[in-house]
Amino acid sequence: MAKMKAMAMLGLDKIGMIEKEVPVCGPMDAICRPLAMSPCTSDVHTVWEHALGDRQNLILGHEASAEVVEVGSLVKDFKPGDKVIVPAITPDWEAVESQMDLSQHCYGMLNGWKFSNIKDGVFGEFFHVNQADGNLAHLPAGMDIEDAVMLSDMVPTGFHGANLAEVAYGETVAVIGIGPVGLMAVAGSVLRGAGRVFAVGSRPNCVEAAKFYGATDIINYKNGDIVEQILAANGGKPVDKVILAGGGLETFEQGVKMVRPGGIVSNINYLGTGDYIKIPRVEWGLGMGHIRIIGGLMPGGRKNMEYLARLMTYGRLDVKPLLTHRFENFEDIEPALLLMKDKPADLIKPVVRVG
Ligand code: NAD
Ligand code: ZN
Fold it and tell me: What is the 306 CA–ligand 1 centroid distance (Å)?
């Protein structure tokens, strides 16, 4: 069998380049080669926080734009040579859960997340995409392959946070954590019509980007209790909605303490460690406050990619401010992932351009 190079999790806390068989294409599937790739904080949870347990020689990565090199006999809309956007989440569209609008959980919890979880990810010279017609989107004319990588995960996840929070015109929204995901939650909230957005973060690049995406107030969690800071800034009142995109389990408690009766605390953070989440009884209205707490994996699939891409094509969303570090060789995916782990102060998101 033909072999290829790939960047893999070798075991707990270990990554490296390996050789592995080129994946085989099924009748509804595609084989792609990456054009640009980006590591995710989720890869960091997987390798260094052991969030998915031990994995040996699992190819990492779920963010890439790509060129199709092979398609199965039943694929209708894609052919070799097509440039594509690849969502991080690639559901089985026939599953009952998918028919319930929960394609992320097709055939079981989180099963729509296949890359770098239940099969090899996209950091190989080639990778496999299940159900190509339902899971790939054509790269729109004029879209840069680096920008397209942000559509794999950062844009849909941040926007999912705003959707789960059901952000409406004029609302006050607090976004906790303004790495790339939180920044896209700010952008998504603003596009949904938020009136005032409190962005909780500290890194100067992220703070600048948060203002660029429409945050009206910056709250530094290193300057003291964020609940007190946000309530004080909001005239003593709780906010309408809270989106959790950084920090640990304590952010749920903070979220409930800062949201109004009937408000929503929407989590898009990947909780890599810990066992239980505390919900403060009194601020949760003694169990009767109508405060909803919800957490969700981003929805993948073709339609979501096409619709989010349209926001970029027609100038409503610019992802360039996210891309702070650039690399040009396939092997550079390793230092790029280490950057994501070490998070130097000037980092938002690295991208490796190979096509
Ligand atoms: P990131 O680490 O770049 O950003 C998180 C930010 O939160 C950092 O800037 C960090 O300094 C800040 N932070 C830490 N503690 C904080 C606190 N107490 N209060 C406020 N901010 C705090 O991560 P990212 O790449 O933006 O990703 C965010 C999370 O989203 C990660 O857990 C990632 O794995 C997850 N994720 C989830 C999905 C999904 O589908 N739900 C998809 C992609 C990524
Ligand atoms: Zn990710």
Answer: 25
Residues lining ion ligand 2 (Cβ < 5 A) are 40, 42, 153
Measuring from each residue's beta carbon to the nearest atom of ligand 1, which residues come in under 6 Å? 40-42, 45, 153, 157, 176-177, 179-182, 200-201, 203, 206, 221, 245-247, 251, 268-270, 297-298
The tally of domains found in the chain comes to 2
From 268, 319, 337, the mutation candidate for ligand 1 (largest count of ligand atoms within 8 A of CB) is 268
Q: Where among 276, 295, 314 does a domain terminate?
A: 295
Range of the domain at 23: 3-153+298-353
Question: By the 8 A CB rule, do 149 and 297 touch?
Answer: no
pLDDT, tens digit, for every residue of 38-57?
A: 999 999 999 999 999 999 99
Task: Based on the fold, state whether residues 41 and 115 are members of the same structural domain.
Answer: yes
- Closest-CA residue, ligand 1 atom 44, reads 42
Say how many Å lie between the CA of residue 348 and the centre of ligand 2. 13
- The pLDDT score that the predictor gives to residue 304 is 98
Q: 227 and 195 share a domain?
A: yes
- Give the pLDDT score at 355: 85
CATH assignment of the domain containing 21? 3.90.180.10
* Cβ neighbours around 253 below 10 Å, total: 17
Of 273, 295, 317, which residue is a domain's last? Answer: 295
The whole model's pTM is what? 0.97
Residue whose CA lies nearest to ligand 1 atom number 23: 179
Cα–Cα distance measured from residue 202 to residue 338, given in angstroms and rounded to the nearest whole number: 21
Q: Which residues contact 99 (CB under 8 A, 6 or more apart)?
A: none
Predicted pLDDT of residue 122: 98
Using 50 as the pLDDT threshold, list the residues of the chain that sit under it.
Answer: none
Which pLDDT score is estimated for 44?
Answer: 96
State the distance from the centre of ligand 1 to the C-alpha of 140, rounded, in angstroms. Answer: 29
Do 99 and 184 fall within a single domain?
no
* Contact in structure between 138 and 322 (CB atoms under 8 Å): no
Residue 25: name the closest of 69, 59, 60 by CA: 69
Beta bridge partners of 232: none
